[in-house]
Design brief:
The chain is an alpha/beta fold and about 260 residues long. The protein is built from 8 helices and 8 strands, in the order βαβααααββαβββαβα. Strands 1, 2, 3, 4, 5, 6, 7 and 8 form an 8-stranded mixed β-sheet that branches. Helix 2 packs antiparallel against helix 6 and helix 5 crosses helix 6. The two termini are about 15 Å apart.
Length: about 260
């Protein structure tokens, strides 16, 4: 690619699978794409916040690798979920150079579900760690988090690919989904509940794809457990593989709408 192509990225949630975003981002950058704005839901918000903060993909991978499963499952909650993500909020806050969204070096948007009002909220200002943890609070596994006069839950419940709020920046939007839908046999109550949530998120992704100039679905994430931190490298590698496989077509399409 002879010239840089400036883009905006919308990153889906997906727990551990969100590390696939980093694999895609590395390949994009290697091929001359420059990220100008980011939005994210859930795990995509966590990854996106660190990219917007100026962290390298290797630094972000290290942050996630140093997390323990107990960090995700720490703190029983009696307020609408089994666990709390307060420890994840603390870890993120410690790693961030910038603490408020509006102070970040690039535009960043966090999608979170207003649980009480039943509406999606797109945050362009406010405490990064609090809002990203709230955006990752997948009920009923994790309790919604209070913020101002709202009770916020996983952004993926209502918009797991927040492309629409990126339109105002005028850059070609690439939507990255790390949750491919594959056939599954019926499991236990936990597995069935999670499957229902994934299917619901897949439905709202279909609506959000309309606002993307290019859509990437990371196929090899299908076998990755969203809570299994031992599969972080698998997720990253899946992102690299997917991005490399579509790069020729992506260049052809987006170079025609270069900003």
């Amino acid at each position: 690619m002879e010239q840089t192509v400036k883009i905006a990225l919308a990153l889906s949630g997906g727990g551990v699978r969100a590390l696939a975003h980093l694999g895609v981002i590395d390949v994009l950058r290697e091929n001359g794409f420059e990220i100008m704005a980011i939005s994210g839901s859930s795990g995509g918000a966590l990854v996106g916040s660190l990219i917007a903060d100026g962290k390298t993909t290797e630094e972000i991978r290290t942050i996630f690798k140093n997390m323990k499963r107990t960090d995700m499952m720490k703190g029983l909650s009696s307020k609408g979920g089994i666990f709390s993500l307060k420890q994840i909020e603390k870890i993120l806050d410690e790693k961030l150079t910038y603490k408020e969204i509006e102070t970040l070096p690039m535009p960043f948007i966090v999608a979170a579900t207003d649980f009480a009002e039943g509406e999606i909220r797109y945050f362009e200002e406010g405490p990064i760690s609090t809002l990203c943890a709230a955006s990752s609070s997948l009920t009923p596994f994790f309790a919604p988090m209070a913020y101002k006069d709202m009770l916020l839950a996983d952004g993926g419940l209502m918009d797991n690919l927040p492309t629409k709020p990126l339109k105002k920046y005028g850059y070609p939007i690439i939507g990255i989904n790390v949750n491919p839908i594959v056939k599954e046999e019926q499991g236990n109550v936990f597995q069935t509940t999670f499957r229902a949530l994934v299917l619901m998120m897949a439905a709202n992704i279909e609506a959000s794809r309309y606002f993307a100039d290019y859509y990437i679905e990371v196929a090899d994430c299908e076998g990755i457990n969203i809570f299994d931190l031992h599969q972080l490298d698998d997720a990253y590698n899946a992102g690299v593989k997917e991005a490399e496989s579509i790069m020729h077509h992506l260049k052809e399409k987006l170079t025609t709408i270069r900003i």
